[in-house]
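Journal club prep — side note

Before the paper discussion, L.F. wants everyone to see what a predicted structure for a comparable chain looks like in token form. Sequence:
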Amino acid sequence: MSKNNKNPSKGFFATLKRWGKRMFFGGSNALADELELTPEEAAERARQADIEEVVSPTRQIVRNFLRRKGAVVAMCVVVAMFLFVFIAPEFMPYYDDAYTEPTQKSVAPGFRMMNVPSELKDDIKMIDSYGTFSVGLSNAGKVYVWGETRLGTTGIDIADIPEAVTKDKIAFVSAGIDHIIAISEGGKVYGWGSNRLGQFGTESASSSVAPMPEELINGTIDVDNIKELECGYQVTSILMKDGSFYIWGNKNAYQNLEYFLNLSAMPLEDISFTLNNIVAVRKGGDKSLTTGMKNVYNKVRTDMDDATPEDIKKFVGDRKIVAATTANTIICLTLSDGSVCFVGDAGPTYGYKNLNMPKGVTAVDVQSGTYHFTVLGSDGKVYSCGREELGQCKVSNDATGATRIFSGAFQNYAIDENNDLVAKWGLSGYLFGTDTTGAPIFERVVNAGKMTMTVGAIAVIISTIIGIIIGCLSGYFGGKVDILLMRLAEIVSAIPFLPFAMLLSAIMGRMALSELTRIMIIMCILGVLSWPGLARIVRGQVLVAREQEYVTAAKAMGVKESIIAFKHILPNVISVILVTLTLDFAGCMLTESSLSYLGFGVQYPRPTWGNMLTGANNELIISNFWWQWLFPAIFLAVTTVCINIIGDTLRDVMDPKSTSER
């Protein structure tokens, strides 16, 4: 190319701009912009430049590839996907494949969980939450519900507040996992949501249901004597100031519920729900903890990471237990001197964040979520402890000076003396929603991509090595070697791939194999069964190449046959191998996903895009929880389609008969 036809701009930024245009808008458009030519003139100039300029084959392939806008975009998508699935997990320190959360099952995508209604923000009396939705009560007695309010496939929307509740003035309200209980200032008890297990109202006689007391259904309750209303997992309790209490709901939800149903003679100071047990503080002289079970919650810790818990009675001593605030597996006890301590499954192995409340500061109020506690200190500051994987322990700076606090499952709210909401922090929602176990789909999709791509890459490496070796040997030596190896390839090709892989996987399922060993065997199966196509292609190319003059010259010089085959002939057919390798990579990913989808590949809880799509064969999942299969399907489809586009484009640009504008 003549010197006058070169771009006069030599600067770094000009070069960067020029390559950017070539990448996303094609070579002809970039050339037209540089030389102020029409697209037709630029295309003609580019063709002439290709003819006049002597370039290496590799450079010509790269140049032709970059002129294909679709291929360049596909390459960017695949590279971005690789970086995303292999780097993003490093920024998910709290996630593991076996993560589940019973209170967060099948949550739709969105960030609605902390959307406190504007009418409530400046007149908050109380806020409560147990699962995916929250309920709030204004000082005017009006009830508000927000969050993920749809209850699974029941068709119930918990946000549909009964008309009787909206017309009455409410004094107490509390949220369970699937129901809400409200008590009016006149003592009327209301309930809405799911009541199939006796959460409220009348329920048919069942040994698994503790019915709601008749006097609460048809009568009223003394509101002035109510100390606390609390809902748990399909169970509700009302504690009175005189120590008496009501409790009803699903007996199977808490293993010691029967004990409390028969505990009418013992007055209580406080009552609360963990994940599996009911915990109460006795009213009277000792104010000790009671559960109705032996050797449960009998050790106490002053810190979450205290490795040497003390006996609870010895630790409390002359002090009294004033309140028991519960998370799923931990109880925070507030003592009569304002100090707090922890009972339950804490300790250094659980990774909980400590409270770190300064000495001399006492607890004014303690609220709990699923795995965390939020404490309002006597110094006016808010402190938090527990697990913080969803941000529930990262106290907002705006919470300083709060006079009241409320906590939900993974949310926290700070209220000032004017009943205004001054801060909120914690879980606002999920980008891709959650699955049927409560695990966040975004995190699982990322980790699934890492596994699917790893399995596909290793499988295609195995198949490529086998295919190249057999193809080279068969094509170069010919004769009986060729016949033997090609018959072997035909035998492997004749094996019905999916049924055979499913059979081997089923056999492995009966063997005592670790998950890692199982995955390695799956990768080997995919690689060993998918090499014949590449072997035939390599054989055909080698059959042509071995008749070239440079091969004859190498033989005449006495070069070893193996060196001729693998060091002289093979590099000249590498372009065909690269194309096949690219296409086979997408094929192995799809095959792994198919096996996992059918339940014969990588098993739950380790995610792959295939086993995440298992729910797609369930009409209930497809129609009600579309996000559980749509996002993994999109990631798998986009990745494999882009890889195939790259492979097809490489096949075109590596064809010596292809023109630069083909």
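L.F.'s comment for the group: The two ends are 22 Å apart (CA to CA). Keep this in mind when we get to the figures.
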